[in-house]
Amino acid sequence: CDDVYSQQPSLVHEGIFRIKPRFASESFDVKCIFENNIGWTVIQRRINGTIDFYRGWNDYKNGFGDLRTEFWLGNEKIHLLTNQGRYILRIDLQPWNSPIHIAEYGKFGLDNENQNYKIHISQFRSNISTAGDSLSSLWDNTNGISFSTYDRDNDNLFYDNCALTYHGAWWFTNCFQSHLNGAYIRSPLALQNTPRNGLHWNTYQLYHSMKQTTMRIRR
After folding, report:
1. Where is the Fibrinogen C-terminal domain (predicted)?
2. How far apart are alpha carbons 182 and 204 in whole angstroms?
């Protein structure tokens, strides 16, 4: 999306565009957000619970949902994008009872499917992040962790299947400090001490499920 913006600097806000990463065999559509002369590629969005995120490995590999509303871009596409060079990850978290908070990381990428789409995440930007670090902290560092779905259990617990237990898919350790692909829980239940199968970012609101989330990347 940064390349899209550099070619069309008059673009404002957001849109859907077709791109072809360097090592991709074919092009595909992505949602772009344009802010402060920067183009972000959105890899995940949750806004209203219209799309079921409790899905298996192949759905998360290929992507699912609607780029206009809720979706997961697809682990294979995310790998192809981040394999082109160094990428930044920004996560926007919208609670039910307060303004948007963000978490940003200076380095983000996914390995290929043979490596179970292992995540590489580091360089948490504490100076601009207001939601805390729930991906690479010492408490629960997902750096180097494989992706897990209910039908492909790659978490660190030999006695449990985190994706199955918490109805989602993520880079589960044992089990998580963050999980943004869980069940969509509406207010006011989301503001109670909900079961841990919602949209969680523990360093911000430990037991509350988020109203909206967006994961976006750029070079």
Report:
1. 1-219
2. 17
